[in-house]
Amino acid sequence: MKTSKMQAIRVHQYGGVEELQLESIECPRPGDNEVLIKVHAAGVLPIDWKQRQGIFKHLRPMQFPYIPGSAIAGIIEDVGKYVTKFQIGQEVFGRSSTGAYAEYITTDIERLAIKPPELSFAEAASISGGATTAWQALFVNGNIQKGQRVLIHGAAGGVGSFAVQLAVWQGAQVIGTCSAANVEMVKALGASEVIDYTSCRFEDIVKEVDMVLDTVGGDTLERSYAVVKRGGVLLSFAGQISPEKARELGIRAEFSNTLLSADAMQEIAQVMADGHVKAIISHSYPLHAARDAHIQSQTGHGRGRIVLEIQRSL
Ligand SMILES: NC(=O)c1ccc[n+]([C@@H]2O[C@H](COP(=O)([O-])OP(=O)(O)OC[C@H]3O[C@@H](n4cnc5c(N)ncnc54)[C@H](OP(=O)(O)O)[C@@H]3O)[C@@H](O)[C@H]2O)c1
């Protein structure tokens, strides 16, 4: 590493996008069990702006100042003295707790995997919090089977676009919901039916599905219980589940969290490298435009993942 200083976005207090400050700060050094990564791309996830706004401040308070972002892809620049699994120069991707919106990040290796050469850094940065979330819900929490019917809300989004493709890859029949602008794209991802939520109510069209994956929450989640068949499952990433309602209807309903291992992340990357599933990158911004990236993400509408391409901005 040539310099001891790096550019990073830091947040010093909860608030609006103006709290995303581009600063020149000390470059971190890896601890004994950590690696130092030169970050090439960072995924911009809805949780990044929710944390910055303080939405989770009572549940998981942030330590200020902090560098936002958890989804990373880059090149290992240095390794701690106990790290044997990774070497300097390897291209990796994965997840850290925070710190992704920076030229360099130190992180433990628990959720790091090798980036296949077929994937760009931006594509690899879209895996954590997108493909991992969809994979966990479909294959771990939902145990989806070939031939089952699954309704995916927010099918065009950072999680939903992966969920549609992974479910189709597994042999499921996918029905997706999105706005009119994204209908053709979701069809192209493999959904057999796509419902424009701005012009009709999905429950008037879909009944008796094996599984619902909800990335929208609120009223969409509330209306989803009724379309799951008895014995089926409703998984939400975005809203509060009612166990009572699920029990009454004889379905399983759960909030779905992402807790995937590095091995599972490696498997996902290979499925992508083999061409079964592709990352959709809707917008790419340089590091200094992190505010624009958050403004875009906060709209709650769009296609696939937004990324910061960190090295592009230097
Ligand atoms: N629990 C977890 O571990 C976990 C992990 C990742 C994400 N999440 C949460 O899951 C949610 C989605 O994340 P994301 O990364 O996919 O967000 P995103 O990339 O911003 O995508 C949101 C998508 O929702 C669609 N949408 C908005 N309103 C809709 C409606 N009424 N019906 C159907 N689709 C609608 C939008 O499509 P249109 O443009 O077509 O409207 C957009 O494509 C966020 O709340 C996020 O915090 C949770």
UniProtKB/TrEMBL annotation:
Domain Enoyl reductase (ER): 15-308
Family annotation (Pfam families): ADH_N, ADH_zinc_N_2
UniProt feature coiled coil, ranges: none
UniProt-listed PANTHER family: ALCOHOL DEHYDROGENASE RELATED, RETICULON-4-INTERACTING PROTEIN 1, MITOCHONDRIAL
Name of the protein this chain belongs to: Zinc-binding dehydrogenase
